[in-house]
Amino acid sequence: MEGHRIILNDFLDRIKGDNITSILDAGSGGTSLSIISRSFPNTSIDAVVYPGDIRKINSIKKITEYKENISVIEKDICEDNVIKAYDIVVAHLLLGEASKFGNSFEDLIEKIITMKYKYLIIIDYLEDPSVNENDIMKMCEKYNLTVVCKSFFTNQEPQSWEDFTGVHNFGYLIKR
After folding, report:
1. Is residue 127 over pLDDT 90?
2. 3-state helix/strand/coil string of the chain
C-alpha cells in the first residue's frame, strides 16, 4: 500500500466517531473516492472533478455507478465558489494538478482552505514542484485553523510523473 493511501485511511479513521454527514472529495479520483466511500459507506459524498477531465471521470465511474449517495460534479474549484458546507473536505493529490488546468497552487490552496468544513484533509508529494508545504502551514495560521495531525511517509516504490518522481507523501488533518 502506498503512503498516500495509508495517510488517508489513518486520517479518516481518526474522525469516524464524529457525526459525519457530508464529504467533498475535491479533485476526486479512484483511489480517494474508493477509500472515502468504504470508510463512510452511507454518507453523502460530492466527488468534484475538473470539467471534462475524462481521466478522473472514468476512474470514478465504477465506484459511482451503484452508489446513490455519491454525486459527481464537474467544477473548477478555483473559478467556481463552493457554497455548501461539508463535514470533511479531502484534497488528495490535488494541489499539484492546479497548473494542469491553468490555475496556480496558491489560488487552489486558498480556495480549499477557505471552504466551509469541519475537517480538511490535504495529502500530496513533497517532491511535487507545484506544491509548497510551507504555504499550507502559513494558510492554516492565516485562517486560524488547527492542524490536528501531520503525517509523513516514505514509499518503498517511487511513483513517476512528467515533472517529478514522488517518494515522500505528506498529509495534514486540519480542523476549523
Report:
1. yes
2. CCHHHHHHHHHHHHHCCCCCCEEEEECCCHHHHHHHHHHCCCCEEEEEECCCCHHHHHHHHHHHCCCCCEEEEECCCCCCCCCCCEEEEEEECCHHHHHHHCCCHHHHHHHHHCCCEEEEEEEEECCCCCCCHHHHHHHHHHCCCEEEEEEEEEEEEEEECCCCEEEEEEEEEEEC
